[in-house]
Amino acid sequence: MSDNLETLYQQPEEAVIARIRALRDELGERVLILGHHYQREEVFAFADVSGDSLKLAQQAAATDVPHIIFCGVHFMAETADILTGDHQSVILPDPAAGCSMADMADGAQVTDCWAQLAGVLNPDAEVTPVTYINSTAELKAFCGDHGGIVCTSGNAERVVRWAWGERGKILFFPDRHLGENTALAMGIAPAEMVLWQPGKPLGGNTAEQLKAARLILWDGFCSVHQLFQPEHADTMRQQHPGIEVLAHPECSRAVCEVADFVGSTEMIIRHVDEAPAGSKFAIATDLNLVNRLRLTHPDKPIWFLSPMVCMCSTMFRTDPQHLLAALEAIAAGEPGNRIIVPKAVAEPARRALQRMLDLG
Ligand code: 13P
Ligand code: SF4
């Protein structure tokens, strides 16, 4: 831990918050703080713009502010850096805030998968690679280089439809659940999908299975969302008749199939906002967001779907001390913890992101 952070942890939290407020005012329009919905309350309160991955990527692409502090996780800050100019800096307050799902596929594994597919079919003519935005810049670059695209949980259906319009098959990574749930909602049969298990020859499939498949799903998942189970929905419905179950599409197929509504964090928030007073919800996504919805909608009883705590520990890493340290470094003229994607990766990654943004 840096000396500065250690000093900040010794100060009372109120003093840290007061200093953030003062510095925020002092830095004015030189800084934009982006906050993902999973951020803890004390940090989320300082977000100039909050949103899901799609909205925050769009915001990063649209701003010309010199410094963006990204209160989120590493892939989000990388995306922001790719979409901003060289004169702008993107700062991740705690550089250790990663995403375990994004770590489930790397460039070497995906390149190896593509090479293995080339032994069975002609991937550059027959397969569109689609990467969930929860992935490294390297994978976005792979998609940019191979006629592929990025998607988020907020636009997956539109992106997947585009990808099938380009080529007959899709290789979707790293989240098997988002890929599967999206395709099922579009009427694709389970028999048309196969799972690619990295490390196994042909991902654990036969050549015939790969030739027949329309969707090849990478075997990755979110360790937070996989904790929700369909039985949790049964219990909630027994205890609270009339309750609506809302799930993030990173939950398993079994959970999404029993949910009343499936959508990104932004879509879940909008759904609750627009419901009439008295509506009851059980929600399957990160606990910080569910707790915030509870506070902002006292007229709509809201439960967490799981009896266990499901919280993204890396999103939780960004605390007021890290945010203050980031602001102090900018004020001192030495922005720290910058996320800089090398040009050779950023260029093709931007192509894949731009294809997504162009879809609207
Ligand atoms: P959203 O884009 O829906 O906010 O999801 C991001 C994420 O990482 C969910 O786990
Ligand atoms: Fe990654 Fe899951 Fe955390 Fe989202 S909730 S950032 S997918 S680990």
Description:
This protein has 360 residues and is α/β, with parallel strands linked by helices. The strands form 3 sheets. Strands 6-5-7-9-8 form a 5-stranded parallel sheet, sandwiched between helices. The mean pLDDT is 97. The protein has 17 helices and 13 strands. Helix 5 (74-83) packs across helix 17 (343-358). The protein folds into 3 domains: 3-97 and 314-343, 3-Layer(aba) Sandwich (Rossmann fold); 102-221, Rossmann fold (3-Layer(aba) Sandwich); 225-304, NadA-like (Rossmann fold). It is 45% helix and 14% strand. The relative contact order is 0.16. The structure holds 1,3-dihydroxyacetonephosphate (13P) and iron/sulfur cluster. Iron/sulfur cluster (SF4) binds at residues 73, 99-101, 134, 222, 224, 250, 286, 312, 314-315. Iron/sulfur cluster binds next to loops.
